[in-house]
Design a protein that fits this description.
The complex is a heterodimer of chains A (308) and B (190). Chain A is of the alpha/beta class and 308 residues long. Helices cover 43% and strands 12% of the residues of chain A. In chain A, strands 8-7-6-5-4-3-2-9 form an eight-stranded parallel beta sheet. In chain A, α3 packs parallel to α5 and α9 (195-205) packs across α10. Chain B has a seven-stranded mixed beta sheet. Chain B has a three-stranded mixed beta sheet with strand order 5-6-9. The chains are: A alpha/beta (308), B alpha/beta (190). The interface between A and B is large, with 52 and 51 residues.
Amino acid sequence: MSATPSSDVAAAAQGSPATGTTLVKRGLAEMLKGGVIMDVVTPEHARIAEDAGAVSVMALERVPSDIRAHGGVSRMSDPEMILKVQAAVSIPVMAKARIGHFSEAQILQALGVDYVDESEVLTPADEVHHIDKWAFTVPFVCGATNLGEALRRISEGACMIRSKGEAGTGNIVEAVRHLRSIVGDMRRIAAAGDEAELFEWAKQLRAPLPLVQEIANTGWLPVPLFCAGGIATPADASMVMQLGAEAAFVGSGIFKSSDPPKMAAAIVEAVTHYRDPEILAKISSGLGEAMAGLETATLAVKMAERGW
Amino acid sequence: MKPRVGVLALQGGFAAHAAILQNLGARVDEIRTAEQLASVDALVMPGGESTTMSMLLERSELLEPLSERLNAGMGVLGTCAGMILLAVEVVDGRADQHSLGLVDITVRRNAYGTQIESFEADIGVDGFETPFHAVFIRAPAVERVGPTVEVLARHGSRPVLCRSGRAMVAAFHPELSGDERLHARFLADL
């Protein structure tokens, strides 16, 4: 390992450093809080994202709205494309693996990506099992539509949860539904009267009891909760932050708008100043067209329904 | 009187710092604007993405007021990205990245590599009787220390905790490992 020269006697005396621990993996998610993670499909997009103040980029072949339009099986990106994105920026680079596809995740870890997204935006590879994320040094983020799903992913080793929303729609309604469900159930669990109620919550949520008990004690997930799927404007970003999201993933919303650099910078500022309507009014002005967007009732595929 | 401590909340791990400071009895404010900055006695600059914070400092019109307060001797604790922003010289940063230039050190961004190389380790800190558990996340490395800078801790041969005047900077994350001693020292020095 390059981090600490093995010849260094002082370091050895201090105890050898440990990589890939839960603290280290959750730690990067802590550092991404209050930031925007942007989907990019080329190194040029990645540079635009970094220039606009993104805290991280998600390297993928097509943004979700194009995945919808294109159809077919959607897979992990070409490693060559991921390497080019890594070379183009200095911020952390994430990449997506299909649900359950541990081999794609192993390849992404070998490429040195900073986070793996086990994502419903790609076509699932396993209709029963998610990836055993404890087995990896690289941390994972997973989507969730409700608290039970979030806790199952955490029990499998996810170090960050993002509410799923409905990717590629530019419609915030599903993200709002999922966030309200997750945050509302956490609030109700924190207000539970006794242990017996927690046993019932664990049954209802199909989630491990210790994680339910942890929420009862702390009022929050043991990992950060971010929001994804449908953010298309600074106001969308502000709304999900006010509902309890700790950072935002923006996919099609930036590069399907009429002026991506401007929209990207505005959403970055909106996530920081999410409680200040005067600043939000200023940064929302003159951004051009947001992405066109889709009514969720008209969708042939609901990506949020993928995951078990 | 309780010290009034601001935590720069433009982006990053500000909430964990705020929780520890509150636990230690400080009055804590999240800082996102110049008006908010004017009301605090000291500041914590947290970890996160230094490039993002640099841009947000500029767009939120905080660069000049912050620079003025720092040069006037406001106490400051900078961790990871906070250390990068406070350094005189940054290597492997963006060309347009702002440096507040308060601490005479040269810092290399992401010196250890990607997240897979991030690690935790015990380090010895001057003045602490037992080791401090330090978490390094895509951490910067201090490559040069100027004559006005005191090194308080090293990992291997690399300085990881430095003090210069009323500024303390760490390459690691004291807010993540549940050890409040560094924050307590910061408050005691105010």
